[in-house]
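User: I'm curious whether this sequence folds into something compact or stays loose and floppy. Could you predict its structure so I can see for myself?
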Amino acid sequence: MTALTQKFRFARLAAGAATALALSACASIPGANVPAGAPITPEEAKIGQEAHPQFIQQFGGQETGPAAAYVEMIGKDISVRSGLAGARDSFTVTTLDSSVNNAFAVPGGYVYITRQLVGLMNNEAELAGVLGHEVGHVAARHSARRQQTAQRNQLLGILGQVASAVLLGDSALGRLGQQVAGQAPQLATLSYSRSQEIEADQLGITYLSQAGYDPRAMATVLASLAAQNSLDSQLQGRGNATLPEWASTHPDPAERVNDALSFAAGKPGTTTNRDRFLSRIDGLAYGDKPEQGMIEGNTFIHPDFRLSFSAPNGFYMVNSPRAVSINGDRGQGQFTTDSYNGNLETYVRAQFAKLGNQQQQVTPQVIERTTVNGLPASYGVARVNNGQQQIDVTVFAYDFGGGRAYHFLTITQAGQTGIFNPMFQSVRRISDAEAARIVPRIIDVVVAGSGDSVATLSRRMAYDSAQEARFRVLNGLSSTDQVRAGQSYKIVVRGR
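Assistant: Here's the prediction. I'll summarize afterward.
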């Protein structure tokens, strides 16, 4: 399998699917009847062990190096506070090479956090708090209890199955406008109930306090996540996405922060280890990596595979190891790849076939051939009824030669497919010179000098827009906070 196929292919067993399939294989759900806080059972350990390699494969691979080793150390230290196991080595703590802010855990003591979320944090206590929150989900057996009440609604990681649910009106998996790419961690974690999330917050805060950390760190990291997601919404032109991507099912993130602060009040613990944390994440990759493809403004460009396309005005993109999703109020789409035998018509029909089920097939009336920027291309449109309205599904595929094909799958209201035409026509090969100019971003920890200000440090951020807003969110600063001479701050710079 090529690296590109590994990057863009749909998750056959993504996070939610891996856990759901493992759990539902048994007549009874392992852990569902285990008391909260009880030691990890052999059955739970087996679930985590079997799912672990699939998580790493499907979520960008495992981040390695000093920063990842540091995260693992902190994660194991906080995990033993749960009482699930007496030894630190009973827990597996993995940093995933993903540019999405997320963290999650599965039964058996397996805890995951993305490098992007680590980079958003500002001290060790915040890191311990997020990892403790996820351990709290495991300790309280939230995954098993959720699965027990929804055993027939398995979480699915394959785009075809998710899109089919959208098209055919399966309320268990979504609706038109749901993001269906790059969100497998959300499928694994964001379906927790409000009470389960609050309980995990409180358990995480308890672990923080027991370890001597400032228990208020849970609230500050939640505030940073809310601020980051709000900034992303503004930058992407979407005004209705105000929830943090990590661990939030609530309509009001401010309420979540206040709940955490209230629960932390009066609990012992003052350690934050800010300087140690910042020194350990100095140089950590931030945002997309070239080998994963990069989103620059409204353009996705993959230097290793010499391709590029641009999203239409009013749409934003999310990159993931499996696909690039294109999201907007008027439709959604994905860009990915699949196995290819050299026949584009067969390729297009195969993508439609994956969307159907026993009740309804999704079939285009005709497959058209065309050329886009010198690339052979084929496309088809199918109209289906999702129970409430007519929806058009489009598959637009491109032959890049060498046995490689890529395609968009888009969903719009009937008759609105044309909104994606500029995107379909933007796919092109990029030159070697263009590819060479793509440089990744990294976190650079700097010490503010006596003449520095938010403005001077912000100007060093490797972005063309919103430099000050990005700097403030990255460093957990409010709109009025100022930098202090002699204190360390994060900036994002270009680096090889």
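Summary: Confidence is low (pLDDT under 50) at residues 1-31, 148-190, 241-251. The longest strand covers residues 390-401.
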